[in-house]
Amino acid sequence: MKKKRTSIRVLTTVATLATIALTASGCAGGGGSGQADADGVTHITIATQAQPTGFSLWLAQDLGYYKEAGLDVDFQIAESGAALLASGAAGDWQVGYMGGPPLISGYKTWGLLPAGAMMDEYRNLILFMDKDVLAGTDPATALATTPVGVVANSTSAQLLYACADALGVAAADIETVPLDPAAIANGMLNDDINAAVLFSVNNAPLLADPDKYVQVCDGEKAGVSILDPYVVTPRFWAENPDAAAAWVDAVYKANEWIIDTPRDEVLATFQVFLKEMGIEATDEEATYALDARQWLTFDQALEQMRGTAFTDSLTKTAEFLVGAGVYDEMPAIPELNAKGLEIMEAAAQRR
Predict the structure, then answer these.
(1) Which of 8, 23, 59, 332 could be 254's S-S partner, Cβ–Cβ 3.0 to 4.6 Å?
(2) Cα-Cα-Cα-Cα dihedral of 250, 54, 75, 262, to 10°?
(3) Could you give the CA distance from residue 282 to residue 232 in angstroms, rounded to a whole number?
């Protein structure tokens, strides 16, 4: 495949929810607006993360879908969705992806909009515990008494609180240790922490040592969907709705390529992506990383937003965050869904 090298900017700091709120306050429009040149090509920056989940956003560039849509792109990469919120509010990027918790935070503070669910990570995120902390006790008691490594305001936090709810542990009783994904994995391996939420490829060493690390819970056991939405800044949607819809259409074409293409070809392309992101993985680890994620087609994502599935998933997420004290009151999830559905309906007109 021909590859067009694109500009990549990396954010190395992780923004806390408090910092995000302070940074975003006073940002009336939120987000930047991609501008078209004289030839009609729109230039946008895509927000993504330094992990396998961002495969489809890179793939749409690799396959030429953005070019076909009249888009010229570069990428801004961070360790987590929370770390991207402040830069999105400042107008540094127009579109991208993140987990449900940072989307909700972004919507509350500066109007960030969803464009359907990129994927469901209910099998990808896993709550691990060291066997020693489970000796002579049960997972619920261990969870209530053991600090848990987690990425703040992220899907890993979402999974943690969902597992706590399933185990009958109050969110307020959980002590978290906010870290980036690599630090969480290293913390478990070095016995600095004894419980953590991890995802592929970071969890490979723990999966390889079941005698020491116990898989306590994932989204399937907790009975929840862990949706990662595509997102569009409100300013970009207001000022260039055609380009926003074109991006949504293009990136879902990448999702559908992942779903429909023979697995060996997908794996080979996925490995190219991982290497460009600086992630080393064996074919076995890469296969696991692919299989643990369920990419959605455009039609599936649209159906979720036209129905109740998308709203229900984010509502449950928000309830966990309220219970943990992150929010004082429930965010307006139905309103968020309704505004995002307008973007999806516009993209549907391109199909």
Answers:
(1) 59
(2) -50
(3) 34
Cβ-based neighbours of 244, under 8 Å, separated by 6 or more: 94, 95, 115, 232, 236, 237, 343, 346
Residues 6+ apart with CB under 8 A from 323: 161, 165, 170, 171, 172
* Rounded CA separation 312/224 (Å): 10
In order of their start, the domains of the chain are 41-121+226-350 (3.40.190.10), 125-218 (3.40.190.10)
> What number is the average pLDDT over the span 35-51?
87
Q: Residue 304 CA to chain centroid, in angstroms?
A: 17
For 107-154, the pLDDT digits (tens) are 999 999 999 999 999 999 999 999 999 999 999 999 999 999 998 888
Of the ranges 4-8, 34-38, 245-249, which is most confident?
Answer: 245-249
Strand partners, 113: 232
The C-alpha atoms of residue 70 and residue 243 are separated, in whole angstroms, by: 8
Dihedral sign for Cα 44, 47, 50, 52, please: negative
287-319 burial, b at 16+ Cβ within 10 Å, e below that, comes to bbbbebbbbbbbebbbebbeeebbbebbbbbbb
**Rounded Cα–Cα distance for residues 8 and 10 (Å):** 7
Torsion angles phi and psi, residue 3, rounded to 5: -120, 130
Q: How many CB atoms lie within 10 A of CB 41?
A: 16
